[in-house]
């Protein structure tokens, strides 16, 4: 059966492709190039639902959408839902994490804790809606390292990565443990009926 992945972010398409293939190879994940709704929610759940509802309505297929970001404890959870445009320039990953490192420049361990959050909404046309969340805990590095992944990966030191940043993990290593993988793990039982 088929499910629409409602995202315009090529990195998310790649990661979900690998995560879904590993657990539900029978599920065909199709892309979404329909109208992009205004993401004006103030929570990950609201934004994920906005994107999944739009795609389900437009395609008539079950749709899932990920809304994600990095939440830094000492910043009260920011950038959070504003992660994609923290430095004011949407999609400018390097400026975003450089600003974040600046903001944390006076903060030493153990106060650099942060979480990557992935909230996935599943919307079945004319049917149910579900929201699940996956969290990946770690700390902010003091300087970027690594060339894999995207977004804030070069400045995030996951607790389970032996001191490497997320951008120093292989795609397979990241996809085995990331916030996105954990959210999909919670979603998988709900997809069993599809
Ligand atoms: P769509 O809304 O089309 O899915 P987007 O990139 O705008 O794409 P979000 O609004 O959910 O998606 O923004 C998520 C941002 O959070 C993303 O641009 C990155 O800056 C950051 N982010 C999310 N997951 C990440 C990950 O696995 N590694 C590094 N940064 C991540």
Give a description of the structure.
With 194 residues, the chain is an alpha/beta fold. It has one domain (2-191): Maf protein (Alpha-Beta Complex). It has helices at residues 10-23, 44-59, 93-103, 171-177, 179-191; strands at residues 2-5, 28-30, 63-72, 113-123, 129-140, 156-158. A hairpin with a 5-residue loop joins strand 4 and strand 5. The chain is globular, with a radius of gyration of 16 Å. The chain starts with a strand and ends with a helix. The protein binds inosine 5'-triphosphate.
Globular, elongated, flat, extended or rod-shaped: what is the shape?
A: globular
Low-confidence runs:
none
Distance between the termini: 6 Å
Give the count of structural domains.
1
Write the H/E string, N to C: EHEHEHEEEHH
CATH architecture: Alpha-Beta Complex
Structural class: alpha/beta
- The main sheet orders its strands as 2-1-3-4-5-6
Give the radius of gyration: 16 Å
Number of helices: 5
Largest sheet: 6 strands, mixed
Mean of residue pLDDT values: 95
Tell me, what is the CATH class?
Alpha Beta
